[in-house]
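Quick question: what would this complex look like in 3D?
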Amino acid sequence: MSEIAAASRVRRLQPRASATTAVLAKIATALLVLAGLWALWEGYRWTWIHFDLHRPFVVDDTTMPRVHDIVGALFDRTQPDGPLLIDFLFHSALFTAKEAAAGFAIGAAIGFFLGAIVARFVFLQRGLMPYIVASQTIPILAVAPMVVVGLGSLTVFGSTPTNWVRVAVIAAYLTFFPVTVNTVRGLQSAAPEAVELMRSYAAGEWKIFWKLRVPSALPFLFSAFRIAATACVVGAIIGELPSSIQDGLGGAILNFNQYYALNPAALWATNLVAAALGICFFLVVVIAERLIVRRPPEQLV
Amino acid sequence: MSHNAAVVTIRNVTKTFPRGRVTALQEIDLEVAHGEFISLIGPSGCGKSTLLRVIGDLVQPSSGDVLVNGKPARQARRDRDYGIVFQAAVLYDWRTIAKNIALPLELLGWNRSRRAKRVQEMLELVELTGFESHHPWQLSGGMQQRVSIARALSFSPALLLMDEPFGALDEMTRERLNMELLRIWSETGSTVIFVTHSISEAVFLSTRVAVMSARPGRISAVVPVDLPQPRTADTREEPRFFELVTEVRERLHAVGADKVVEELEALE
């Protein structure tokens, strides 16, 4: 009986605090952090202007626009009869999201496949890993034009990859690496006894892989997906730069960069939207993890 | 099968690990009869876990044979003749208790309703009915180990191999699970090989206790335990129980187990 009591005590340690309270607390924290960031930005601005500080850079309306000007810029029209900036950026963000999501899917699949092969055939670990690592030390800015231009002259099944597909490849390039590394670790994370048990049930390699190794690797995979979720957005934005794609956030950043002196708030507003997109991707991964990975509550982050 | 037919025959098994040239097992000979409960006891590093793994075809002997029901160990493993319980429960966190118990049955290709029926029987056997939809981390260590036993017995293996299954539990839980294991043993009529380093646990549970010595690992004595069945809480207080505990202890000391233990402690 005492064991049953112990088990129910374990459950009682995580009281089902009313869900609304928890959500409200989270919203309050988020607002508090936003207010803190706002205060930090404006405080820095005020201090540097008030005391006329010149290092590390001169602070004025061009280098550091007021926060309300940046937010306000979102509700300005891009052209006298054009859409609101926020509307324009929303569509840009959707386009970039499409590239990033496709890149994430391609990168995660390739990353998992590579990781599974390296984890299975240990001799490949020494042969393959240096190149996998090297692929990430080459700056993405150097690779992006080659991929975009290279794929543009490529014909697959009678068609040339469209612009956004080429950008997705760049996003995939940034995505696969963390997935590969964590797949290798995750697939090897099952306890030796767990593998011995599977062997005692006369389970073959394939069954052991799907019923034991992959589920054991899931927490590792989701750690990688969190990193990859933000990396694929960066990859998509950078991938747009050399391909002269105007439909995404990368195009918008290039564009507003040219008019920075005239309208600095527009670029900052675009950066805000890009950051928001990254956070959205991250949140999708976190929610998916909550739904898929079953593990002790103390291991939930 | 007649009651005294050998379930396990170990003939002249030697196991050396090339790295460090350690002789883990040397010329082991042992027969385990159907329905027996035999304990392997010895100091740390005497190869008792290795012997268990050799029997279960998880470690290959360097020489010698292991026959299970007259078949080579490899064939016995393919025929799923082994149910194994380790010191850690090794439950899958991502599976519910019911699905943990059903894992071997899934691999055997049982259909859903047959699995569900057997899982209920197993939960009853280990007295965990009502916990089927819990996850492992919601159970205490003792309960987790009972799930592990239920999983090992779910497909009715000919032989139950247990590697210090209660070693990580507190004394109270351990004694209660000892009683429970004996009940399960008599209800299922299975044959058990049980590794432990607790003398009283070995004597209380077993029909025979095999005492092992270290470096090289060998069976130095086999002590038959003639305590009446079924064993009860009172068994631990009978004079014969103490005599047998003393006998096993002396056998252990005779092989210098205490010296080995000191050496190991000095190494740590």
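Answer marked as accepted. The longest helix of chain B spans residues 171-188.
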